[in-house]
Amino acid sequence: MKLNTLPRVRLANLPTPLQELPNLTKALKGPRIFVKRDDLTGLAFGGNKTRKLEYLMGEAVQQKADCIVTHAGFHSNWLTQTAAAARKLGMKIFMIKTGPQDGYEPEEFDGNHLLHFLAGASMKVVRPEKVAAAVEETAAELRAAGHRPFVLQEMGSTPPGVAAYVNFFIELTAQTAELGLSFDYLLHTTGAGGTQAGLIIGAKAFHTGIKVIGSTSGSRTAAEQTPFVFNLIQESLKFMAMDVRIAEEDIVIYDRYAGGYGYATEKKAEAVKMLAELEGLFLDPVYTASSMACLIDLARKGFFKKDETVLFLHTGGSAALFAYKEPLRAYGQGKKIPWTVPSWSPDRR
Ligand SMILES: Cc1ncc(COP(=O)(O)O)c(C=O)c1O
After folding, report:
1. Which of 125, 212, 261, 331 has its CA 20 to 30 A from that of 2?
2. Which is nearest to 296 in space by CA: 30, 11, 22, 15?
Protein backbone atom coordinates (compact mmCIF):
# COMPACT_ATOMS: atom_id res chain seq x y z
CA MET A 1 0.00 0.00 0.00
CA LYS A 2 1.41 3.37 -1.06
CA LEU A 3 -0.72 5.58 1.22
CA ASN A 4 2.18 6.62 3.45
CA THR A 5 4.65 7.26 0.66
CA LEU A 6 2.58 9.52 -1.61
CA PRO A 7 3.86 13.09 -2.06
CA ARG A 8 2.08 15.34 0.44
CA VAL A 9 2.25 18.87 1.79
CA ARG A 10 0.73 19.86 5.14
CA LEU A 11 -2.20 22.25 4.83
CA ALA A 12 -4.78 20.99 7.34
CA ASN A 13 -5.09 21.15 11.12
CA LEU A 14 -5.64 17.49 11.87
CA PRO A 15 -7.35 15.70 13.49
CA THR A 16 -10.56 17.65 12.93
CA PRO A 17 -12.95 17.53 15.93
CA LEU A 18 -15.49 14.75 16.37
CA GLN A 19 -18.51 16.15 18.19
CA GLU A 20 -21.89 14.88 19.34
CA LEU A 21 -25.12 16.56 18.15
CA PRO A 22 -27.41 15.87 21.14
CA ASN A 23 -30.11 18.42 20.25
CA LEU A 24 -30.49 17.09 16.72
CA THR A 25 -30.56 13.54 18.09
CA LYS A 26 -33.37 14.57 20.47
CA ALA A 27 -35.32 16.46 17.80
CA LEU A 28 -35.22 13.45 15.48
CA LYS A 29 -35.89 11.00 18.38
CA GLY A 30 -32.70 9.05 17.62
CA PRO A 31 -30.39 7.66 16.23
CA ARG A 32 -27.37 9.08 18.13
CA ILE A 33 -25.77 11.61 15.77
CA PHE A 34 -22.20 12.91 15.65
CA VAL A 35 -20.42 15.30 13.31
CA LYS A 36 -16.86 15.12 12.00
CA ARG A 37 -15.83 18.74 11.57
CA ASP A 38 -13.93 18.76 8.29
CA ASP A 39 -15.24 22.31 7.93
CA LEU A 40 -12.51 23.12 10.50
CA THR A 41 -9.51 21.97 8.48
CA GLY A 42 -8.09 25.46 8.87
CA LEU A 43 -7.34 26.37 5.25
CA ALA A 44 -9.41 29.34 4.04
CA PHE A 45 -12.90 28.53 5.40
CA GLY A 46 -12.17 24.80 5.73
CA GLY A 47 -13.63 21.80 3.97
CA ASN A 48 -13.00 18.40 2.45
CA LYS A 49 -10.80 19.86 -0.27
CA THR A 50 -8.03 20.65 2.23
CA ARG A 51 -7.34 16.96 2.81
CA LYS A 52 -7.36 16.29 -0.95
CA LEU A 53 -5.13 19.29 -1.66
CA GLU A 54 -2.45 17.97 0.70
CA TYR A 55 -1.87 15.14 -1.80
CA LEU A 56 -2.66 17.06 -5.00
CA MET A 57 -0.40 19.98 -4.14
CA GLY A 58 2.19 17.44 -2.98
CA GLU A 59 2.37 16.32 -6.61
CA ALA A 60 2.44 19.92 -7.87
CA VAL A 61 5.34 20.78 -5.56
CA GLN A 62 7.18 17.58 -6.53
CA GLN A 63 6.86 18.62 -10.19
CA LYS A 64 8.15 22.11 -9.33
CA ALA A 65 4.99 23.83 -10.60
CA ASP A 66 4.84 27.61 -10.21
CA CYS A 67 1.11 28.05 -10.86
CA ILE A 68 -2.14 26.07 -10.73
CA VAL A 69 -4.83 25.89 -13.42
CA THR A 70 -8.19 24.47 -12.41
CA HIS A 71 -11.93 24.70 -13.13
CA ALA A 72 -15.31 24.44 -11.39
CA GLY A 73 -18.60 26.22 -10.79
CA PHE A 74 -18.77 29.98 -10.34
CA HIS A 75 -19.12 29.88 -6.53
CA SER A 76 -17.05 26.75 -6.03
CA ASN A 77 -15.55 25.82 -2.65
CA TRP A 78 -12.94 23.80 -4.51
CA LEU A 79 -11.73 26.98 -6.20
CA THR A 80 -11.54 28.81 -2.85
CA GLN A 81 -9.56 26.06 -1.17
CA THR A 82 -7.27 25.58 -4.16
CA ALA A 83 -6.61 29.33 -4.38
CA ALA A 84 -5.71 29.40 -0.67
CA ALA A 85 -3.42 26.35 -0.99
CA ALA A 86 -1.72 27.76 -4.09
CA ARG A 87 -1.15 31.15 -2.46
CA LYS A 88 0.18 29.56 0.73
CA LEU A 89 2.68 27.62 -1.40
CA GLY A 90 3.70 30.75 -3.30
CA MET A 91 1.92 29.89 -6.56
CA LYS A 92 -0.45 31.84 -8.81
CA ILE A 93 -3.91 30.49 -9.50
CA PHE A 94 -5.79 30.49 -12.81
CA MET A 95 -9.49 29.56 -12.64
CA ILE A 96 -11.88 28.59 -15.39
CA LYS A 97 -15.37 29.04 -13.98
CA THR A 98 -18.69 28.02 -15.46
CA GLY A 99 -21.45 30.57 -15.84
CA PRO A 100 -24.71 31.27 -17.68
CA GLN A 101 -22.72 32.81 -20.53
CA ASP A 102 -19.08 33.36 -21.52
CA GLY A 103 -17.59 36.35 -19.70
CA TYR A 104 -20.42 36.44 -17.09
CA GLU A 105 -19.88 39.11 -14.39
CA PRO A 106 -22.04 39.04 -11.25
CA GLU A 107 -23.76 42.17 -9.97
CA GLU A 108 -22.42 41.51 -6.48
CA PHE A 109 -19.11 40.09 -5.29
CA ASP A 110 -20.31 37.64 -2.71
CA GLY A 111 -19.68 34.21 -1.16
CA ASN A 112 -16.84 32.24 -2.72
CA HIS A 113 -16.52 34.57 -5.71
CA LEU A 114 -15.44 37.34 -3.35
CA LEU A 115 -12.85 35.00 -1.82
CA HIS A 116 -11.49 34.08 -5.27
CA PHE A 117 -11.15 37.79 -6.03
CA LEU A 118 -9.43 38.53 -2.72
CA ALA A 119 -6.93 35.71 -3.31
CA GLY A 120 -5.97 37.44 -6.55
CA ALA A 121 -7.11 34.57 -8.77
CA SER A 122 -7.10 35.07 -12.50
CA MET A 123 -10.66 34.14 -13.56
CA LYS A 124 -12.22 33.29 -16.89
CA VAL A 125 -15.92 32.42 -17.14
CA VAL A 126 -17.22 30.14 -19.90
CA ARG A 127 -20.19 27.87 -20.64
CA PRO A 128 -19.62 24.29 -19.33
CA GLU A 129 -19.05 22.84 -22.82
CA LYS A 130 -16.04 25.15 -23.27
CA VAL A 131 -14.27 24.35 -19.99
CA ALA A 132 -11.91 21.63 -21.25
CA ALA A 133 -10.69 23.79 -24.16
CA ALA A 134 -10.28 26.85 -21.91
CA VAL A 135 -8.20 24.86 -19.39
CA GLU A 136 -5.92 23.56 -22.16
CA GLU A 137 -5.60 26.99 -23.73
CA THR A 138 -4.74 28.65 -20.39
CA ALA A 139 -2.12 26.00 -19.55
CA ALA A 140 -0.61 26.29 -23.06
CA GLU A 141 -0.39 30.10 -22.80
CA LEU A 142 1.32 29.82 -19.42
CA ARG A 143 3.83 27.26 -20.73
CA ALA A 144 4.56 29.49 -23.74
CA ALA A 145 5.25 32.37 -21.31
CA GLY A 146 7.85 30.22 -19.48
CA HIS A 147 5.68 29.11 -16.53
CA ARG A 148 5.28 25.58 -15.14
CA PRO A 149 1.52 25.17 -14.66
CA PHE A 150 0.02 22.19 -12.84
CA VAL A 151 -3.53 21.35 -13.94
CA LEU A 152 -5.95 20.08 -11.30
CA GLN A 153 -9.01 18.31 -12.73
CA GLU A 154 -12.43 17.19 -11.44
CA MET A 155 -12.44 19.17 -8.21
CA GLY A 156 -9.58 17.08 -6.90
CA SER A 157 -11.58 13.89 -7.34
CA THR A 158 -8.64 12.06 -8.83
CA PRO A 159 -6.71 9.18 -7.16
CA PRO A 160 -4.39 11.37 -5.03
CA GLY A 161 -7.48 13.23 -3.73
CA VAL A 162 -9.24 9.92 -3.05
CA ALA A 163 -6.19 8.80 -1.03
CA ALA A 164 -6.88 11.65 1.39
CA TYR A 165 -10.26 10.20 2.38
CA VAL A 166 -8.83 6.69 2.74
CA ASN A 167 -6.30 8.19 5.13
CA PHE A 168 -9.20 9.93 6.93
CA PHE A 169 -10.09 6.53 8.45
CA ILE A 170 -6.77 6.26 10.27
CA GLU A 171 -7.69 9.50 12.04
CA LEU A 172 -11.32 8.50 12.63
CA THR A 173 -10.40 5.06 13.97
CA ALA A 174 -8.06 6.63 16.55
CA GLN A 175 -10.79 9.06 17.65
CA THR A 176 -13.51 6.43 17.94
CA ALA A 177 -11.19 4.12 19.89
CA GLU A 178 -10.40 6.92 22.34
CA LEU A 179 -14.08 7.80 22.81
CA GLY A 180 -15.27 4.17 22.86
CA LEU A 181 -17.59 4.78 19.91
CA SER A 182 -18.48 2.83 16.81
CA PHE A 183 -20.54 4.18 13.94
CA ASP A 184 -23.14 2.33 11.88
CA TYR A 185 -23.48 4.96 9.15
CA LEU A 186 -21.51 7.86 7.72
CA LEU A 187 -23.47 10.44 5.71
CA HIS A 188 -21.83 12.96 3.38
CA THR A 189 -22.43 14.79 0.12
CA THR A 190 -21.12 13.38 -3.13
CA GLY A 191 -20.28 15.73 -6.01
CA ALA A 192 -17.32 14.84 -8.19
CA GLY A 193 -17.17 11.63 -6.11
CA GLY A 194 -13.64 11.69 -4.69
CA THR A 195 -14.69 11.97 -1.08
CA GLN A 196 -17.16 9.11 -1.44
CA ALA A 197 -14.64 6.91 -3.26
CA GLY A 198 -12.08 7.44 -0.47
CA LEU A 199 -14.62 6.88 2.30
CA ILE A 200 -15.88 3.63 0.79
CA ILE A 201 -12.35 2.28 0.31
CA GLY A 202 -11.27 3.40 3.79
CA ALA A 203 -14.36 2.02 5.58
CA LYS A 204 -13.76 -1.38 4.01
CA ALA A 205 -9.94 -1.46 4.13
CA PHE A 206 -9.90 -0.62 7.85
CA HIS A 207 -12.74 -3.11 8.63
CA THR A 208 -14.91 -0.47 10.28
CA GLY A 209 -18.30 -1.93 9.33
CA ILE A 210 -19.50 1.64 8.64
CA LYS A 211 -22.05 1.97 5.85
CA VAL A 212 -21.20 5.07 3.78
CA ILE A 213 -24.17 6.99 2.35
CA GLY A 214 -23.74 9.78 -0.19
CA SER A 215 -26.35 12.40 -1.05
CA THR A 216 -25.84 14.11 -4.41
CA SER A 217 -25.06 17.82 -4.76
CA GLY A 218 -26.27 18.22 -8.34
CA SER A 219 -28.68 16.82 -10.88
CA ARG A 220 -26.93 13.47 -11.51
CA THR A 221 -29.15 10.53 -10.60
CA ALA A 222 -27.91 7.74 -8.33
CA ALA A 223 -27.77 5.49 -11.41
CA GLU A 224 -25.48 8.00 -13.13
CA GLN A 225 -23.28 8.74 -10.10
CA THR A 226 -22.72 5.10 -9.06
CA PRO A 227 -20.61 3.89 -12.05
CA PHE A 228 -18.72 7.15 -11.89
CA VAL A 229 -17.73 6.56 -8.23
CA PHE A 230 -17.11 2.86 -8.93
CA ASN A 231 -14.60 3.62 -11.70
CA LEU A 232 -12.86 6.19 -9.52
CA ILE A 233 -12.59 3.59 -6.74
CA GLN A 234 -10.99 1.04 -9.08
CA GLU A 235 -8.58 3.59 -10.52
CA SER A 236 -7.63 4.76 -7.00
CA LEU A 237 -7.09 1.23 -5.66
CA LYS A 238 -4.60 0.69 -8.48
CA PHE A 239 -2.93 4.05 -7.79
CA MET A 240 -2.54 3.22 -4.08
CA ALA A 241 -1.62 -0.44 -4.77
CA MET A 242 -4.41 -1.60 -2.43
CA ASP A 243 -6.12 -4.95 -2.66
CA VAL A 244 -9.69 -4.32 -1.47
CA ARG A 245 -12.78 -5.81 -3.16
CA ILE A 246 -15.49 -3.23 -3.72
CA ALA A 247 -18.67 -3.89 -5.70
CA GLU A 248 -21.20 -1.41 -7.13
CA GLU A 249 -23.57 -2.56 -4.34
CA ASP A 250 -21.19 -1.00 -1.78
CA ILE A 251 -21.97 2.42 -3.26
CA VAL A 252 -25.10 3.89 -1.69
CA ILE A 253 -26.38 7.16 -3.14
CA TYR A 254 -29.53 9.23 -2.59
CA ASP A 255 -30.36 11.74 -5.33
CA ARG A 256 -33.50 13.40 -3.96
CA TYR A 257 -32.11 16.23 -1.87
CA ALA A 258 -30.15 18.67 -4.06
CA GLY A 259 -32.69 19.75 -6.69
CA GLY A 260 -29.89 20.76 -9.06
CA TYR A 261 -26.34 22.01 -8.61
CA GLY A 262 -26.44 25.14 -6.48
CA TYR A 263 -30.26 25.25 -6.44
CA ALA A 264 -31.95 26.83 -3.44
CA THR A 265 -34.65 24.48 -2.13
CA GLU A 266 -36.85 24.35 0.97
CA LYS A 267 -35.43 20.96 2.04
CA LYS A 268 -31.89 22.34 2.04
CA ALA A 269 -32.94 25.62 3.69
CA GLU A 270 -34.67 23.59 6.42
CA ALA A 271 -31.46 21.61 7.06
CA VAL A 272 -29.35 24.78 7.27
CA LYS A 273 -31.81 26.53 9.62
CA MET A 274 -32.37 23.47 11.80
CA LEU A 275 -28.65 22.86 12.44
CA ALA A 276 -27.97 26.54 13.08
CA GLU A 277 -30.85 26.73 15.60
CA LEU A 278 -30.39 23.37 17.30
CA GLU A 279 -26.62 23.04 17.38
CA GLY A 280 -25.13 26.42 16.43
CA LEU A 281 -23.60 24.57 13.49
CA PHE A 282 -23.50 26.30 10.13
CA LEU A 283 -23.80 24.07 7.10
CA ASP A 284 -23.50 25.28 3.51
CA PRO A 285 -26.51 25.70 1.20
CA VAL A 286 -25.16 23.59 -1.70
CA TYR A 287 -23.40 20.48 -0.38
CA THR A 288 -23.74 19.74 3.33
CA ALA A 289 -27.38 20.91 3.30
CA SER A 290 -28.13 18.08 0.86
CA SER A 291 -26.70 15.29 3.03
CA MET A 292 -28.18 16.78 6.19
CA ALA A 293 -31.60 16.98 4.47
CA CYS A 294 -31.08 13.30 3.59
CA LEU A 295 -30.15 12.40 7.19
CA ILE A 296 -33.19 14.27 8.57
CA ASP A 297 -35.55 12.64 6.06
CA LEU A 298 -34.19 9.12 6.63
CA ALA A 299 -34.41 9.59 10.42
CA ARG A 300 -38.02 10.85 10.17
CA LYS A 301 -38.90 7.83 8.02
CA GLY A 302 -37.46 5.44 10.62
CA PHE A 303 -34.58 4.25 8.42
CA PHE A 304 -32.12 4.22 11.35
CA LYS A 305 -32.66 2.18 14.53
CA LYS A 306 -32.82 4.18 17.77
CA ASP A 307 -29.69 2.53 19.15
CA GLU A 308 -27.64 3.09 16.00
CA THR A 309 -25.00 5.81 15.67
CA VAL A 310 -24.67 8.04 12.64
CA LEU A 311 -21.69 10.18 11.70
CA PHE A 312 -22.34 13.27 9.59
CA LEU A 313 -19.30 14.52 7.69
CA HIS A 314 -19.30 18.32 7.53
CA THR A 315 -17.32 18.94 4.36
CA GLY A 316 -17.29 22.75 4.67
CA GLY A 317 -18.48 25.38 2.23
CA SER A 318 -20.21 27.73 4.70
CA ALA A 319 -18.81 30.81 2.90
CA ALA A 320 -21.45 30.14 0.24
CA LEU A 321 -24.22 30.89 2.78
CA PHE A 322 -23.86 34.60 2.07
CA ALA A 323 -24.63 34.14 -1.63
CA TYR A 324 -27.95 32.52 -0.56
CA LYS A 325 -29.16 35.23 1.81
CA GLU A 326 -32.48 35.85 0.00
CA PRO A 327 -33.80 32.25 -0.05
CA LEU A 328 -32.49 31.52 3.46
CA ARG A 329 -34.05 34.67 4.87
CA ALA A 330 -37.38 33.97 3.16
CA TYR A 331 -37.41 30.37 4.42
CA GLY A 332 -36.63 31.51 7.98
CA GLN A 333 -39.50 34.01 7.82
CA GLY A 334 -41.95 31.37 6.62
CA LYS A 335 -42.19 32.88 3.12
CA LYS A 336 -41.86 31.28 -0.31
CA ILE A 337 -38.23 31.25 -1.42
CA PRO A 338 -37.72 33.91 -4.14
CA TRP A 339 -35.49 31.90 -6.48
CA THR A 340 -34.36 28.32 -7.01
CA VAL A 341 -31.76 28.54 -9.77
CA PRO A 342 -28.98 31.01 -8.86
CA SER A 343 -28.09 33.83 -11.27
CA TRP A 344 -24.59 32.36 -11.85
CA SER A 345 -25.84 28.88 -12.78
CA PRO A 346 -25.22 27.60 -16.33
CA ASP A 347 -28.85 26.34 -16.13
CA ARG A 348 -29.88 30.02 -16.36
CA ARG A 349 -28.83 30.54 -20.00
C1 LIG B 1 -18.57 21.56 0.82
C2 LIG B 1 -18.42 20.40 -0.13
N3 LIG B 1 -18.89 19.21 0.25
C4 LIG B 1 -18.81 18.13 -0.56
C5 LIG B 1 -18.26 18.22 -1.82
C6 LIG B 1 -18.24 17.01 -2.69
O7 LIG B 1 -17.00 16.40 -2.68
P8 LIG B 1 -16.55 15.48 -3.88
O9 LIG B 1 -16.27 16.39 -5.04
O10 LIG B 1 -15.34 14.81 -3.39
O11 LIG B 1 -17.66 14.55 -4.20
C12 LIG B 1 -17.74 19.45 -2.26
C13 LIG B 1 -17.16 19.59 -3.61
O14 LIG B 1 -16.91 20.67 -4.09
C15 LIG B 1 -17.82 20.57 -1.38
O16 LIG B 1 -17.36 21.78 -1.75
Report:
1. 212
2. 30
